[in-house]
Amino acid sequence: MGAGGPDAPLAGPRGYDVRHVENFTDVNEKIVARIGEDDFGDSEEDVAEYFTSHVIEDMRGLNLKRAEVYPRVSEHVPEIVDLVETLVERGYAYESNGSVYFDVTAFEDYGKLSNQRLDEIESQGVEDERSEKRHPADFALWKAGAVDPDDIAEHRHADLPAIDDACGQTWESPWGEGRPGWHVECSAMSMTHLDETIDIHVGGRDLVFPHHENEIAQSEAATGQQFARYWLHVGLLQTAGDKMSSSLGNFLTVSDALEEYGVDVVRTFYCSTGYRSEQTFGEDEMREAEERWDRLERAYEAAVDACDSTDAYAKVEDDEFREALAETRESFRAAMNDDFNVREAMAALLELATASNRHVDDNDAYDYWALRETVEAFEELGGDVFGLSFGREAGEEGTVTLAEDLVDLVLEIREAEREAGNYERADDLRDDLAALGVEVHDGDDGPTFRFE
RNA sequence: GCCAAGGUGGCAGAGUUCGGCCGAACGCGUCCGCCUGCAGAGCGGAUCAUCGCCGGUUCAAAUCCGGCCCUUGGCUCCA
User: Fold this and answer.
1) 20 to 30 A from A315, CA-CA: which of A171, A350, A427, A431?
2) Strand B contacts (CB < 7 A) among A residues 112-171?
3) Is residue A387 within 8 Å of A319, Cβ to Cβ?
């Protein structure tokens, strides 16, 4: 399973008991190719660990739900060997020079996921590997020996010292020393930690062929059972003008994006397009996400303030508001049930913002019950489901309280200046506060503020 | 060349599964009004769409069928 954010709604609200597994491929030629680069480390294990820890960090930073299990290839080699042996026994794989290949002609349904025809598929693998294969589309389940430096030369940065000897980890197997093949690890780990048949398999659209196709072939050939009931293929992130590339300097890492925009804006951005669609990452797109998030957050805060004020009454009932509230919950639920239509679900939340703002704007006496329900809706739908941080501001309460007192002090001074007609001075103070990230609103009952 | 996904207003992006509620959602932008010393936020209203092109089916198509154009991903490695 990929690091999908909005799979959380599968769990709580809909009552499914989800077992969520995300695997790390920590044995891989591209990892070997980067040995010695920057501070990645001097062995395949070290480089893998470097990247794995950064991915985990990013996922935590994005406030994604933790998976129940994070299996790694390096700890599942025995299961992989077992699976390959099974495939050989059942006649779906054959050994050749210490390597083992999957025989695509033996699996009748090969190509069913990507709708490919065997005779249209071009050959896979490097040249000397091709000579070991019976069919050009056959793919390696087990590769003899360590990594041949020639195979990774093109992935290696030019300024790094060349690797002369075979490198990378190897394991014992019935076919001799070697490494797991390209796609088996997913099948093996999936069967180990989930079942022969899994309900939902998530992955990028770019992996449909050959990766997912091969996973299906291996798994179903080995078990005779359907491998995955549903495939969620997520669209790829695009950049505004040119492609994202390090040489153009127009790429952002997850941690850069988090630092620049904050989790909530990043998550709002992701929730503005369906998972199937490709999405464009750019300044304009992020600015819009920022506006959307701000609007939600402001509406939420206004609802909390109104709800907690003495202007909120037990006997006030705003039918229109209450109806909008019910509609929000209903359309949010319907949208999420419709293939995770997060954009529609977000629209429902924004409509609640409008309804709530209108109620507070138009009335002096508030409908307490409806406001409380509104606050809860924001916290449940926006908070629990979308992972946006409604009502759980970062800690440091003491500091925040002091900051609030200080802002109040500045605003008192500013009020005195305004009463004296010194608007220029008053505006300067407001600008200075804005520069510090304090948004001031002048209202009928005096100024209010919020931290951006 | 083959496989797949997509082309909707100034932008972004739902809707296409089961044709009519789509004269096309939500938001951003722009404009007007309320509020305000001003600004912002908020509220109300307005502006903006021949739904890639051509043809067909139908009483009715963004939605179905056929052809074409363009974009993206895959078809060598790698996950």
Assistant:
1) A350
2) 114-117, 120-126, 139-140, 151, 155
3) no
